[in-house]
Amino acid sequence: MEAEKEKEKEMREWCVALPKVELHAHLNGSVRDSTLLELAKQLGDKGDIVFEDVKDVIMKNGRSLPECFRLFELYHILTTDHDTVTRITKEVVEDFAMENVVYLEIRTTPKNNEAKGMTKRSYMNAVIKGLKTVEAVEVVLFDSNSRADKTPMSELGGDTRKKKIYVRLLLSIDRRETTLAALDTVNLAMEMKDQGVIGIDLSGNPVVGEWETYLPALEHAKELGIPITIHCGEVANRNEIRAVLDFCPQRLGHVCCLNDEEWKKLKSLMIPVEICLTSNVMTGGAPSLELHHFADLYNAKHPLSLCTDDSGLFSTSLSNEYYLVASTFGLSKAELFQLAQDAVEFVFAGDELKRSLRELFERVGKELTT
Ligand SMILES: [Zn+2]
């Protein structure tokens, strides 16, 4: 028993030390519980919410699905002012960097909120301000020939230099939005492409909205050359799954409820999949960890990367997702390393950054797998 615990501890530590690439992380869903509690307390004091009603669900580990939805609602209430958006962005980046995520794509839905004087643009400015105020780690926001990009990546473990993390932003179109609002988001992504915004995501409640509503905006993004990722098959909406596969975005999130024909099509298209194990099991997209479609896609050598989706909401971390793959499907350290390294090929950032990431994995590979 002791030996088993020791083995688990060693493996968990190894998964933290492993450099990782996070491609599917929603800003709001990645907020620290301690911050959420503090913000809820402030709102409670102002009389905007009843703090006692939400306290327990915030402090709970391993939430039920209805509790997750309650937290989702709370995120929307909590993130309506610029300072809060800046703060949570800063903390989310720090948290990912501390567990050795070396490249992070954060996705977020730019919001208009007239009452708070917030526009989609000012919301995004608050996010970018958050990235720039990170001090605990070094954040590299731009491609091109910025000098910061030339500095060597800090070595793993015991190094007193700051950890370094590349961060890029994806703008999410929420399924509740109109065609015009979705088009606004795509145009904003284009305007902000020199500020770290590199892609578009389609997300939100999967039973809300119609594919046809967002299609013009997604087509527009495609014409502009902006990479796209789409939440696909969270529910068994046959028409939409077919339409999404036909659209052939650069990446897909989740892909839970596909039928045989759709799996076949996905595999033939080789569209990389963002796998979110804990999220899928907790929200019912997969029946259990053991029966998660990761195994089938992995065995088929389909391109995929492990992701958290909402690390705060689902009480997980990217290191934990790697650990779950090892403990559930029996992957070796070498196989886990390969999985992390392969994700580099699916990032939306440019070739120069990809090269830097490839070099990093080459450098640490031997040390971690022998
Ligand atoms: Zn998601």
TrEMBL record:
Keyword field: Hydrolase, Metal-binding, Nucleotide metabolism, Zinc
Protein name according to UniProt: Adenosine deaminase domain-containing protein
Record bears the keyword Zinc: yes
Cofactor(s) needed for function: Zn(2+)
Catalytic reactions on record: N(6)-methyl-AMP + H2O + H(+) = IMP + methylamine
GO biological process, one term: nucleotide metabolic process
A GO molecular function held by the record: metal ion binding
Domain of life: Eukaryota
Signal peptide interval: none
Residue ranges of every copy of the Adenosine deaminase domain listed in the record: 19-360
Pfam family, one: A_deaminase
Protein family membership: Belongs to the metallo-dependent hydrolases superfamily. Adenosine and AMP deaminases family.
